[in-house]
Write a structure and sequence with these properties.
The structure is a homodimer of 406-residue chains. Chain A contains 16 helices and no strands. By secondary structure, chain A is an all-alpha fold. Chain A has a single domain, classed as Na+/H+ antiporter like fold. Chain A starts with 7 loop residues before the first helix and ends in a 19-residue tail after the last helix. At the A-B interface, helix 1, helix 3, helix 8, helix 10 and helix 12 of A face helix 1, helix 3, helix 8, helix 10 and helix 12 of B.
Chain lengths: 406, 406
């Protein structure tokens, strides 16, 4: 594209490329350094986000574009994880995952509420912090386990299943909490949404794979290039869209879409293709989490102390809650599951933003939740890597085979 | 991500996904229909953009996000084309490509200027229309030839080489024209920019491949996952960024980055990975071209007539200019090269936008150029497909092999 001298289109194009370049290169440099330090690269990429974000170097300002790429990145990640997870794998751990999700929601909510109450915060603010501590950002854990080749372990599947249920529970809690902040709870409406969310999830899990299998020969006969990839991306975006309309997370829709296709695409080149797209887009998600951290909110010593307390509580409450539910599997697996549910990431941030929008949460408390959300995503990966260190790779490797094109 | 009920974040996320879903699915449905009609799918995807864009169904509104994705899509496409083009391939056709570019710039410029002048337009407006008719949108042709497996033909390489030179010439012309519109031409500044652009291109062509080859073992030893892909994307984004700073098109930087890596990555899984990313992003580029078309400007009969004349002239002038330069290769190859240089796409649109911004071009003329830009991208692919129909696939196939992951 021909560009003028300092005219608007040139700088817009240059600005876009600068943003992409800085985020991608910073993320991957940090990942390389972390790999060399034998630390999970995920944590490096989040730290890179803190570094280049507004708090420190201010090289990149988060905006519509970074947010959109981040969103697409995590959607592709969960779609990819879904492609490696067959519905039967989740059925097998369904009961345990449900228990992990339920206890893992109750304990953080109650502890979060109590500590904010004890700290002298308002009732509604304490409830919002509790709600922000509930939901798991499963992307971080999925990425760590995926990079270690451990996604098909029993505990990985419990974590994935629990994260889906966790998200539905979180949706219900957030609905109730938001209604409280607005002054009245509409139980009928919330009940409808909850039923829709549960129905959608069960429908895709039980019917999705069969429907896709029936479609398989039609997809094969499409004339459009890379028909599996095209069909898969359409299904992924479509179910993610439906999920947001129902009220569940887009990533849940993407994960379910992947699961529905898992059997059909086995042996095709589609999963490595999705992996390639994810490799490009995922850094934007991880860096975006880091960029959210606003250190300005922490000039106050009491805020810093509260943020550290809330963060510790966020870690401990999931470890206790989810760990207790997974205890029958043995101490080590219980710890793995508990730690896998620790990252709050973008989920916690969104809850806090909603609270801020409803005037239920003030700027200082928002900062505290933000710190907790980012810190838990940074704390969990190294511990996860340690807890899983002795497990052998069980996923097939390499997912993207080295095949000559010439 | 947990979402509330009709709260802002939910609708923003839903809006993003709706845009992605509608564009991707509409493009691919149209591509499928066009494949069945034995027409080039590229034209279908552009038509899908016209259909879902503001002119017809208004399902999607072009904005910052669609523009950014479109930009990334065409950058990846040219990077991919570069990966299949070794510098030596371009050297061999360098002289011919230079001639094709030069005559292919002069003829459209002169004819465009003359017809607008004869139509009674202002001097500066006529000059701008001439400039908008100069530069080739090589992405469309590259996609058509790539999908036919014909990128390594002699004529394909002439087209690619000519498009690079064409872009530099277009840059110089646009600089002069913009200066004229602003009231004074700074030859020293324009000369510097031209030298920078030429120097950058020659430097990457002559030194790039050798530099990358030296780096090869270091890239292999990186610990970060998919190190070739990571290195390649970084180089692609980096050179695209440098290109925009110099004033050449970002896609030229991406193409040069691909060419510099072409030898090093032969036999690795990196080109098919880039292809997968391109498959996801390219529809946004093609649809975006179609969405630019604003039919509101065509309520006036005289504008319609002018638009048709300018479009015909845009086709004929490249056929004559580039065809004449390629005539020694024989009539058929001359026609192939000429038709390959016809699409103006986003390049013509950007020139018209700059003219609009400088008040050198009015809304009606802008509409005419827009029509010409979109129409040439639609006209060229079917003729290209016909002109190349009897050529045998020469590129290795399939670029992305079907390799089981389990």
């Amino acid at each position: 594209m021909i560009m003028g001298f300092g005219l608007a289109p040139a700088s817009a194009e240059g600005g876009l490329l600068l943003t992409l370049f800085v985020i991608f290169v910073a993320a991957k440099l940090a990942a390389e350094v972390f790999e060399r330090l034998k630390q999970p690269p995920v944590a490096g990429e989040i730290l890179a986000g803190i570094l280049i974000g507004p708090s420190v170097l201010a090289l990149v300002t988060p905006g519509e574009l970074t947010h959109a790429l981040s969103e697409i990145g995590v959607i592709f990640l969960l779609f990819l994880v879904g492609l490696e997870t067959k519905p039967a794998d989740i059925f097998r751990v369904g009961g345990r995952a449900t228990l992990v999700a339920i206890i893992g929601v109750i304990v953080p909510f109650v502890l979060g509420y109590l500590v904010m109450h004890a700290w002298g915060q308002e009732q509604i603010e304490a409830i919002f912090v509790g709600a922000a501590m509930v939901a798991t950002s499963v992307g971080i854990t999925a990425r760590v386990l995926g990079q270690m080749g451990l996604l098909s372990l029993e505990t990985s599947r419990i974590i994935l299943g629990a994260a889906v249920i966790d998200d539905i529970l979180g949706l219900i809690i957030l609905a109730i909490v938001s209604s409280l902040a607005k002054g009245g709870v509409h139980y009928a409406q919330i009940g409808t949404t909850a039923l829709l969310a549960i129905g959608f999830t069960l429908l895709i899990i039980f019917v999705g794979a069969r429907a896709v299998n029936r479609f398989r020969s039609r997809v094969e006969n499409l004339r459009v290039g890379h028909s599996y990839l095209v069909f898969g991306l359409s299904l992924c975006l479509g179910l993610a869209l439906v999920a947001t309309h129902i009220g569940v997370a887009a990533i849940i829709g993407a994960f379910l879409a992947g699961m529905a296709m898992a059997e059909s695409v086995e042996g095709t080149d589609m999963p490595p293709q999705v992996e390639a797209v994810t490799e490009f887009l995922l850094p934007f998600f991880l860096v975006n989490i880091g960029m959210q951290l606003n250190l300005d909110a922490f000039l106050n010593r009491s805020t810093i102390i509260l943020a550290v307390i809330v963060t510790l509580l966020a870690v401990v409450s999931k470890l206790i809650g989810c760990g207790a539910a997974a205890w029958p599997l043995g101490r080590k697996k219980a710890m793995q599951v508990g730690m896998g549910m620790v990252p709050r990431g973008e989920v916690g941030i969104v809850v806090a933003q909603i609270g801020l929008g409803l005037n239920a949460v003030d700027q200082a408390t928002y900062g505290v939740v933000l710190f907790m959300a980012v810190a838990t995503t940074l704390i969990a990966p190294p511990f996860l890597a340690r807890l899983y260190r002795e497990e052998k790779r069980v996923d097939e490797e390499p997912v993207l085979p080295i095949t000559p094109i010439s």
